[in-house]
Each structure stands twice: as structure tokens, then as C-alpha cells.
Amino acid sequence: MRYHSVDDEQTDVEIGVPVPDGVTGEGTIVAGQLPGGRVIVIVHLGGHDRLSEAYNRIEEWLTAHNGPEGAAWEVYEWIDLSTEPDPSRWPAPSEWRTEIVQPVR
Fold first, then answer.
1. Do residues 41 and 99 lie in contact, with contact meaning Cβ atoms separated by under 8 Å?
2. pTM as predicted
3. Domain coordinates in residue numbering, the chain
4. How far apart are CA 30 and CA 43, in angstroms?
5. Which of 34, 67, 90, 102 is the most buried (most CB within 10 A)?
6. What is the mean pLDDT of residues 67-84?
7. Most distant CA pair in the chain: distance in Å?
8. How far is residue 79's CA from residue 97's CA, in Å, rounded to a whole number?
9. For 55-64, how does the pLDDT look when each residue is reduced to its tens digit (9 = 90+)?
């Protein structure tokens, strides 16, 4: 999940999921690619109600260094996208591992 912008009226978000070869986008769904280059990574363990704590730590680091180079993205390590999603089989939110990847200058 990659949030480019979020406000009260509109959100611009990318969602990365595996798709079969040969499938192309339709309508407003298009193929994309994450940028290469330098990043910082933080892993948050727990529910998303406290994910802002990890983002605050990233912001502190960015303030002390060169700053961001584009939008961060989140990798939900607790969801197996190679199978049909089944929320009843997901671990408790206290066990969720979410990786935040922030491109940097």
C-alpha cells in the first residue's frame, strides 16, 4: 500500500497485489513499479491504530538527514497474497508485522 496523498476529499493510493501474467489494467487500474534507490525501513509490530508511532520515528530521522524522496509504502507481512485472503485466519492485530519503506535523498 502506498499513499501519495490523503485529504478530506480524495486519496491517491497504490495497492500492490500479484496478478496473473498477461492481465492488464482496466479503467483507473494500471500497472506500476516501485522506485529503486536508497530507503530507510522500519518494522512496526502491532495493530495499525499505533502505526503513526512508526511514521513519527521516520519523520524524526528524515528531519535529521536529507529528507524524503517520494511517498513511503507499507508491506503487510501478516497477509499472504499468494492465497485467497481470509481475515478469519489472520493473526491478532497485536502480532501484525508491517514494514514501512521510505525512499530518501
1. yes
2. 0.79
3. 39-105
4. 28
5. 102
6. 87
7. 44
8. 9
9. 999 999 999 9
